[in-house]
Write a sequence for this structure.
């Protein structure tokens, strides 16, 4: 695998953002986006936008007119999510980070519960990146509600695959539906959807 270093790679690495996505993981997300995304990607858990910038910058390098839907509670999560993720400044920083790199026009933010947004969703997804709450029931819920929209041949990725609750969900994935990618990017585990288009 050739890790993608897009034109803003250094700026994304150095941007002010509370994010657990490392540079290697960001480059892996960029590679997944360039290989799998045709028109639509969805990210569950965007916080201040570092991972979104890796994905969108890689697509911009290909001049691909794809959209990344960014799902997060932002300040709506006050009292239920870590303070650094739910401060009122988090969404402002998310928007500023994407705007600074001229990526904002390709992002569609969805502020609210992932489950509520999924319940209203109706389109096919090329790439789904799950990085919201890492508690088992929420990871499982994100998988169950969003993965049916991933197209055959599309990709499903989880961050922090080394954490117990996330790993438990990965062990439960039906192997007849998901093929694990042999390449890895740090703590990201990725799968392609099996089937015949």
């Amino acid at each position: 695998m050739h890790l993608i270093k897009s034109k803003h790679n250094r700026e994304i690495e150095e941007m002010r953002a509370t994010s657990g996505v490392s540079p290697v993981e960001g480059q892996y997300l960029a590679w997944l986006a360039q290989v799998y995304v045709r028109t639509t990607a969805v990210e569950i858990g965007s916080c201040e936008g570092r991972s979104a910038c890796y994905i969108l910058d890689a697509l911009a390098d290909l001049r691909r007119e794809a959209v990344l839907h960014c799902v997060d509670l932002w300040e709506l999560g006050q009292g239920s999510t870590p303070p650094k993720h739910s401060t009122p400044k988090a969404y402002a920083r998310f928007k500023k980070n994407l705007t600074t790199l001229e990526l904002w026009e390709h992002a569609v933010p969805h502020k609210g519960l992932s489950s509520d947004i999924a319940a209203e969703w109706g389109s096919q997804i090329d790439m789904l990146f799950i990085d919201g709450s890492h508690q088992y029931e929420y990871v499982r819920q994100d998988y169950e509600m969003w993965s049916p929209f991933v197209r055959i041949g599309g990709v499903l990725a989880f961050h922090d695959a080394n954490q117990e609750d996330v790993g438990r969900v990965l062990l439960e994935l039906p192997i007849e539906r998901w093929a694990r990618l042999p390449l890895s990017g740090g703590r990201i585990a990725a799968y392609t959807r099996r089937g015949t288009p």
About this structure: The beta strands are 40-44, 67-72, 107-111, 125-130, 150-158, 178-180, 189-193.
